[in-house]
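User: Okay, second chain of the day. Same drill as before: sequence in, structure tokens out.
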Amino acid sequence: MTTLAIFLALVLALSASHKLVARDRLAAATARLAGVNGATGQVLSFAAAAIEGAAALALVLPGLQVVGGAIAALLWSAYGLALWRRRGMRLDCGCTVAAREKPVDGLAVARAALLAGLALGVAMAPAGAMSIETPFAGLALLVLYLAFGELAAIPALQGRKA
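Assistant: Same drill. Structure tokens below.
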């Protein structure tokens, strides 16, 4: 298991658990993103959480890293395409604990594409050896990823006033 597989599994697990904890808010965000009604958004959000959970589990189980990486790559690709279709709209990104509407921009689409590419790379790479440092390195990547998301949300860094 590689550091990258652990990082992606953590991102997926956090995303899935967030969808289950903030069900109503993220179901509404999913509905707006997909262009469907609220009830269908609820089903899509729950389905996405289930797929994310399955992919996260597969990424950390020996022998299933290829399956987990492929599922994650497909999921993030679909998310990236949905974001691309809605670029310019203001949507709750669902990327923080508090509701935060922001415009869908190229950065959001690029982030989904980058995650899809990383997942595809994990799916195609040979299984790596696990050492004592591997989980900590995966956690460190997660912390950097979350910090980048917070920095990207600062209006002054986005080129607009608060």
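Residues 66 and 124 are 7 Å apart (CA to CA).

User: Thanks, on to the next one.
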